[in-house]
Design a protein that fits this description.
Layout lengths: L3 H4 L3 H13 L16 H13 L3 E5 L2 H11 L7 E5 L5 H8 L3 E5 L9 H6 L5 E7 L8 H11 L2 E5 L7 E2 L2 E2 L6 E5 L12 E5 L2 H11 L26 H11 L2 H19 L6 E2 L12 E5 L3 H11 L16 H4 L28 H8 L1 E5 L13 E2 L4 H19 L6
The protein binds pyridoxal-5'-phosphate.
Pyridoxal-5'-phosphate binds next to helix 4 and helix 5.
Amino acid sequence: MPGPGMEWIGEEEKKAVLEVVESGYLGRYGPEDDPKFLAKVYQLEQEFARRCGVRHAVAVNSGTSALLAALAALGVGPGDEVIVPGYTFIASMSAVVFSRAVPVLAEVDKTLNLDPRDVESKVTSRTKAILAVHMLGNPARLEELKAIADRHGLLLVEDCCQAAGATYRGKPVGSFGAVGCFSFNIYKTITAGDGGMMVTDDEETYRRAFAFHDQGHSPHRKGVEVGRRPFIGLDFRMTELTAAVALAQLAKMDRIVARLRETKRALKSALAGLPGVEFREITDPDGEIATLLTIFLPDEASARAVAADLGTKVVADSGWHVYSNMEHILEKRTATPQGCPFNCSSHPTSVKYRKGMLPQTDALLSRAINLSVGVSDPGLGSAFGVTIHSDRGEVERVAARMREVVTRVVGGGRDC
Ligand SMILES: Cc1ncc(COP(=O)(O)O)c(C=O)c1O
């Protein structure tokens, strides 16, 4: 069970893939007048945009590609700074670097998403965008971040890769910012093995993202030339096979999220009131997708002891998601020796990175443990933590073990 969607792969996905194979059209373009052409990529884009409550979507081959297309579409580039959280998957930063802009790292708060106060303090004359990541399925403080973006004339980019299906105050994530980016890799709410989606309500942003994802072309379905190309693009196209699986999964998304929420609710209530345990702050309990329950222990020592006893890690030790473990970012290790964008005439004031530069983030993550309701990582590289399969018996077993371990380590009487 790498991610929730994987658990639901079944007959529907198999049938959809077979239909595409039999259609003879494996790529996204085909003749509209051939009934055999199923236009799955196009259908997925339409359906995904509709579910996000926006007008446009561009299907791509990964969440990273969605971020790259988004930043290119918004004109983020050399000389620009993008504020990103210190707790996120590396792609939120690498997409900025490959746009030749500079990521500026900001603190997370008890939501484990961007801390708006720290974001505002990091705005400079070079800041172009705030990249809000909805980590572990929990929407960031979107209202505050949008207000900061508006106050300073910045773009809000939503990295929704870990939060497909989430809403904030009743509105789907991805519809608050200038763009929203999603991933369909195997750890996500819905999966097609890999794949991604960029959504936007803005026509021009859509046209630019489409051009970027396919050699500068205009949005169209037939693969023929339509008009002039606005700029040089690349190839991040999604295949019909991927879209077939993603569409079948999308039809299951509400059921997937409902089951995650039910499991998490049961786990949370089984652990409620346990001395020494504080839950991660959830910005909108009705809107999160409930893939994980993150708990804070009173201090690093007790968190490490509890984690060791449970056979997991504290979140600070997650190799993939914590800035202080991203040696290639800290050392600004780029593929070419020139070091662009860090060492670049369009960005002369070099941004500095070092371990310990985000003390609030470090302190929170060092006493945090994830209990995984719907995402697991057998190698533990991501510190997804203790895995709970979605039947009720397992929730009770894990909760009982947690109570026993926490009470022994923390001593039963302390509160956070
Ligand atoms: C927050 C976040 N952003 C971006 C990505 C990149 O998505 P992909 O792996 O599909 O490129 C991921 C994937 O794990 C992610 O978790």
